[in-house]
Amino acid sequence: MRILIVDDHILFREGLTGLLRAQPDMEIVGECGSVHEAVEQALLEKPEVILMDFSLPDGTGLEATQAILADLPATQIIFLTVHDNDERMISAMRAGARGYLLKNLSVNKLLASLRALQRGEAAISRVMMARVLEKFAQSTQQPAAGPSPLVGLTSREIQVLEELADGITNQEIAIRLFISENTVKNHIHNILEKLELHNRREAIEFARKNGLNNTNR
Fold first, then answer.
1. CA–CA dist 39, 98 (Å, integer)
2. Would you call 100 helix, strand, or coil by DSSP?
3. Which domains are delineated in the chain?
4. Is the pLDDT of residue 103 over 80?
């Protein structure tokens, strides 16, 4: 099984690479930490499986997934993330991912999930899948929910909103996302306008209410 690892945390990425390289049926063909590099390496190496982080410095794993599958539709992409968020899992599956796993899973479960792909099975956290199925069952008995409150925001604006939820300064957000402080200010202005919010405090409350707290990332 030829695997590409995409994660912007170098220590985690290198540790995972070492772990998987020790498996006789797995080969690591590359590792990287951004959307641009993920697409570039996927097209070059043509991996069978990609382990994809959700949040990346230059965008999201969703963008990388869509770009890769447009050229390499047979590639099996699994999101491996800290985001225990049902909406994100559903978004990943809609983008074409074959799995969504949390980084707190055991080594044995990760290996079993990867091998299950070869048997045509999806690799999804059982706890998350149970929640989604429960919500689906409830939705059949209730009026349809309205559109997502994040509709209209760009992926970068969502990232800025996640960082705002941590209560950090514009300068700290700029450092985390590798952008200028002025760019951060522009994104916040656009967020307030699109969400019809009045100030930074309301944006922080909105982000936390909608599960965008990024503290554990």
1. 17
2. strand
3. 2-138 (3.40.50.2300), 155-209 (1.10.10.10)
4. yes
